[in-house]
Fold this protein.
Amino acid sequence: MAYVISIVNFKGGVGKTTIAVNLATTLAKDFDKRVLLIDFDAQMNATTHILSIADRYDELFKQGKTIHQAMERKANNREAINLDDYILKETFKNNNDLTLIPNLHLLAGATEMVEFESILNTVKKENGKTYLLLSDLLTSVHGNYDFVIIDTSPYLGHEVRNSIMASNGYIVPLIPEPFSKNGLNVLLKRIHKFTMNHPTYKNTYTKFLGVVFSHFRRNVQDENSFIHWCRDWFNGEHLLLYGIRPGGEKNIFNTMISHRPRVYRKSVSQNLPLFKTKDSSIAINEFHDLAEELLEKIK
Ligand SMILES: Nc1ncnc2c1ncn2[C@@H]1O[C@H](COP(=O)(O)OP(=O)(O)OP(=O)(O)O)[C@@H](O)[C@H]1O
Ligand SMILES: [Mg+2]
């Protein structure tokens, strides 16, 4: 059975997509895991990174192979659908096939997901279980993967709720800056409240796997102070209200993803994974360490 992880934060631009894509790539490439990456954001940034949109996305859409088409079919059809039919098996494929990662697969995103609510209205008429649509879809491919990584959108909307319901755990990327304080509190509280209000959908609650600091700049004093604040905050008893056990170290990944705009920009604009991007060795090592830490955490 696949271990399903949502990458979540309601704040935009904190590194959700970057972490989803590179964590998925690292688990597949460095640790030989079978990984499915799901692009559950209508901005479809993960898809844009992995495919060269111009030459491949149109083709996929025509073939009906996107998350929108899979969900629409599932909502409208009472018979079971096999999600495997919608999954792209050739990722990071450039013209020479040089960067193909065979065990990294993609369920492509779609801008049409801005109308996700209308799909859910159909589900509502059928059985009312709107938050279970992704979870239901995943059952047909659970046995094909070791990990499913879901990139989500920056709102607590239906996508994030569906994603949380389908996941074993969730990771919160965070920029170490004061504005993140309130957001963190609200985020954990709302996810907890949501999962508590839907206990009948799952046997277990989705686990908070931890915060990953991204855009981290080691020599900026403010950022280091924020990290100290965060460690203290994650030691507090108030966390029990969110269903999280206090323990500063355990709730924050040791590995931090440092701020490297040029490397990440290049990787995205050239549709390349980090291991094919110039000057990326530090970023590669950070993602390797992050994946290793994750594997240890969920053992
Ligand atoms: N560690 C990093 N160092 C430098 N730039 C980064 C880093 N992580 C992400 N970026 C860049 O910051 C921008 C936002 O990152 P990303 O798209 O991953 O955030 P996001 O949380 O997914 O955003 P959204 O909420 O819009 O989906 C992108 O241009 C990305 O390339
Ligand atoms: Mg994103």
About this structure: Residues 180-197 form the longest helix (18 residues). The longest strand covers residues 207-213. The chain has a mean pLDDT of 91. DSSP finds eleven helices and six strands in the chain.
